[in-house]
Amino acid sequence: MSKTLLVKNAAVLVTMDGARREIPGGGLFIRDGFIEQVGLSAELPLQADEILDLTGHVVLPGMVNTHHHFYQTLTRAVPAAQDANLFNWLKTLYPIWARLLPRDIYVSTQTALAELALSGCTTASDHLYLFPNGSRLDDEIAAARDMGMRIHASRGSMSLGESQGGLPPDSVVDSEETILKDSQRLIETYHDPKPGAMVQIVLAPCSPFSVTGDLMKESAIMARQYGVQLHTHLAETQDEQAFTVQRFGQRPVAYMESVGWLGDDVWFAHAVHIDAPEIKVFAHHGCGVAHCPSSNMRLASGIAPLTAYLRAGVKVGLGVDGSASNDSSHMLAEARQAMLLSRLAAGLAGASLSTDDSPPLLTGRQALELATIGGAKVLGRSDIGALEAGKCADFISYDLNRLETAGALHDPVAALVFCQPHNTDNTVVHGKFIVKQGQLATLDLHRQIEIHNQAAARLLTGNP
Ligand SMILES: [Zn+2]
Fold first, then answer.
1. pTM given for the model
2. How far is the CA of 130 from the centre of ligand 1 (A)?
3. 174 alpha carbon – ligand 1 mean position (Å)
4. From the CA of 437, how far away is ligand 1's center (Å)?
5. One-character DSSP codes across 382-425
6. Cβ distance 94 to 304 under 8 Å?
7. Which residues pair with 14 in a beta bridge?
8. Residue 11 Cα, ligand 1 centroid: separation in angstroms?
């Protein structure tokens, strides 16, 4: 028996289709988790199993987060790591993260996904690269399934410990054999390549300074055998660049090339310290970028060349990054930060507002593109990121009758980015409500916060 959902009467429906249509009075007709029709409400079927009247709401494709570390929601605002740059921040946090238990992975995933869903995200990529005390990526996948969120779960890894010249302590790194065996198990167990997939697996050795070149190469070979994507942190800080130049005699991008990591199946988190020839390399090979403006500001890492990427045709999505360096998982806030930071960069570069023939400043709509269709492309998905017939029924809505957008109704679409309403009113993934009328529908938030705080306290003190 098929199940249908009719969405009608939106104040404006933002499609993010090829023509970037925005449809006043628009709606969707959904069957079994996929969009069957998009258009004016009057042109859609009159009947459905469920009807959602969104008079006064803006409707958009669900946002796609391209970089996160869910487990870090347990170590937000840790005092000793509040004011540190990346390498010192990591060295402070590694011993705390080494105490993670399997149930912490489950709890922190649900907390992160709750915040993401309420802030407009329907698909999240996560990068889990520590597996202490029997923790497994399975714990994260179970948590996402129980909530009904779509995830790209990255099997991260660290194999280059301190004794070998790497940054992490030896206690949190694993052997290459263990990592590759588990990667294969996860792909074979969970990876779904079909349209509408709720779970995809990604192979994601953590970074050039925590992983051996051999593991990078072997991961790329395995990923291509199975047709899964590759992901890692790259060119996040100048410290990292100094590390790769000193250890490998190459800048980060050249190092990635030497280990077989350039291709349209690869996306890099951060990519801050990238020069003009390297931008061309990304564009030529189709590499994607997860732009993480809040984290880059929080850790004083630098400003990624966002507008240069867009001009060169590099695929760019947004990432809230882990909650130890954001410290929130607010997807719409990240879109706003991307817009603001790119404008600061333009100002610092002395951009002339009148002579450049491309739009001189990143617009609110461009920021929404990055957060939706941009992220979908980075994750290699053609079935999400836009509201079009045949795509997944992943959408969000904001009631415009709210304090945050009061006085901004001349352009309610741009107002979402400029005014950044705090929570969605509806977040729907594959036709199912994750947020309904502003409330989480698949998680008891009150109870979740209590369990999460208990887990965080235990992690920090080390007391059971
Ligand atoms: Zn990260």
1. 0.97
2. 12
3. 19
4. 32
5. SSSSS--TTSB--EEEEES-SGGGTT-TTSHHHHHHHH--SS-S
6. no
7. 22
8. 37
